[in-house]
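Q: I'm writing up a methods section and want to include an example of the input and output format. Could you take the sequence below and give the corresponding predicted structure tokens, formatted cleanly so I can copy it straight into the document?
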Amino acid sequence: MNTNILIVGVGGQGTLLASVLLGNLALDNGYDVKLSEVHGMSQRGGSVVTHVKISDGKVGSPLIEKGEADIILAFEKLEAYRWLPYLKKGGSLFVNTQQILPMPVILGQAENPEGLEEALAARAGEIKAFDASQVAAECGSSRAVNVVLLGAASRKLPFSNDAWMKVIQGNVKEKFVEMNKFAFIKGQLA
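A: Here is the clean output for your methods example:
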């Protein structure tokens, strides 16, 4: 297995925890993993992206080049569009339909791009777009969007539900473990 996963969002959405869960899961199951995190003003709601490369061989560079991502997990619709060139033609895209407007749009200095859904569908072989924020809120915390999206994408990866539950148990604060397990399962069903 050689799988390249791009996790994209804005600061504070939990992209980094998602990459830690995914990386530890792969390591626990005998795969070589490389992670690379890029923060763009993440504390102010700027773009955050994590490259996750998983292989049953040896992973070289931790960075995913344009057109090489097998999967993109997008915590926000505009970030999915922004990073779309990195998805390989026919790759899988899992998108939270929440939209966080960038500051130039809020200030009236720019317009929000039109036709986001069409552009995403034209590139992806498979697209699962849903309100992961609402699903997370129904599970007990809107901050569980990361685990909801991991649940949705889990069927594209060779890990058992038991392995996912174990990595959540081992990497999430104890008081949030059960809620995150529930969020993961709800993401699988979304």
